[in-house]
Amino acid sequence: MSTTENILNEENANPLAGLDEWEEDVLRRYPEADTIVKSKSTEQFRNYDTPVRETVREFYRLNHTFQTYEFVQEKRAEFLKFDKKEMPVWDAFNFLNQLVDDSDPDTELDQFQHLLQTSEAIRADGHPDWMILAGLMHDMGKVLCLFGEPQWAVVGDTFPVGCTYSDKVVYPEYFANNPDFQNNSYQTELGIYSKNCGLRKVNMSWGHDEYIYQMMKNYLPEPGLYMLRYHSFYAWHREGAYSYLLDDHDREMLKWVKLFNPYDLYSKSATAPDWNQLKGYYEDLVGKYLPPTLKF
Ligand SMILES: [Fe+2]
Ligand SMILES: [Fe+2]
Questions:
Q1: Are 99 and 145 in contact (CB under 8 A)?
Q2: How far away, in angstroms, is 265 Cα from ligand 2 center?
Q3: Which residues surround ligand 2, an ion (CB under 5 A)?
Q4: Distance from the Cα of residue 3 to its chain's centroid
Q5: Most exposed among 11, 44, 142, 207, judged by the fewest C-beta atoms under 10 Å?
Q6: Is residue 8 in some structural domain?
Q7: Residue 232 is part of which domain span?
């Protein structure tokens, strides 16, 4: 039975009331910007006073169970052809906004507002304009949900597939359900990879990070591409895991990924930025780096 058929047998492939529930849980685990310095273990995070919502736990169970090496290859083949849709960049934001969170419809800002708050926080700190654009685009890959993909194949902390799982990935116990767990060639430290081969040679679990990276890879400078590609790889950028897969280039780029992360996690505010005032700036920015239309 293929992975896809397994998924169809799951009663509820989308346990989260909205994708934001995953991000709220990330925030619960990483309440401060400098957590890595204190190097708390994921074990300690799980002992926080606020209980994890059962929906989040179920979400990770599905994610860790079904994100196999084979599944990642299937999704790369399916989505990296970019033959599903083509639309002007600003239409793409409207498309993304069709994703509605029903967890808290009164207070939740839409997807575009999260992107704009991220990019505006980056801009306020005087960072380069390509980083502002990375902030604006970083979650565009969530449109995968609108192509019918289940939540666990779009969001969630990402992790390498084809090698052993780090216990620094949240809920490592659920990896025991993954068929790859029984495959000895995937369960050594390096698995199918070679020592310090570099993350660019490593397949990550499939989701919105890899998809937006592939969409943007011809348009942003390398540090911006790392921000997009690894922003959900918390086991690396917050926990320091998987050092044996890294090369010098990854170690050099890590500082950029870490620079980006707080803007993603901590820029949320109940007040929506005034789009009418910002529109001109962002139209120029998008026009400077991106083609008129994006392919999905
Ligand atoms: Fe994201
Ligand atoms: Fe985000």
A1: yes
A2: 7
A3: 139, 264
A4: 21
A5: 11
A6: yes
A7: 3-291
State the Cα–Cα distance between residues 243 and 221, nearest whole angstrom: 24
**Burial degree of 253 (CB within 10 A; 0-12, 13-18, 19+):** buried
Separation CA 144–CA 96 (nearest Å): 9
Q: Which residues contact 58 (CB under 8 A, 6 or more apart)?
A: 12, 15
What number of CA atoms fall less than 13 Å from residue 199's CA on the CB side? Answer: 24
Asked if the structure places residue 274 within a domain, the reply is yes
Please give the structure tokens belonging to residue 118. 């991220």
Whether 296 is covered by a domain: the verdict is: no
What is the whole-number distance in angstroms between the Cα of residue 2 and the centre of ligand 2?
31
Residue 116 tokens read as: 């704009």
**pTM of structure:** 0.91
Residue count (the chain)? 296
Give the CA distances from residue 147 to residues 103, 141, 159, 242, in Å, rounded to whole numbers and listed in that order. Answer: 21, 11, 23, 31
- How many separate domains does the chain show? 1
Q: How far is CA 112 from the centre of its chain?
A: 16
**Chain segment 23-37, per-residue pLDDT in tens:** 999 999 999 875 444
Ramachandran quadrant class, 39 (left: phi over 0; alpha: psi -120 to 50; beta: rest): left
Residue 11: the pLDDT is: 63
> Which pair of structure tokens corresponds to residue 273?
């930025």
Q: Ligand 1 centroid vs 208 CA: distance in angstroms?
A: 7
Give the H/E segment covering residue 86: strand 86-88
Tens digits of residue pLDDT in 32-86: 875 444 444 444 444 445 677 899 999 999 999 999 999 999 999 999 999 999 9
Q: How far is the CA of 185 from the centre of ligand 1 (A)?
A: 30
Q: Is residue 283 part of a domain?
A: yes
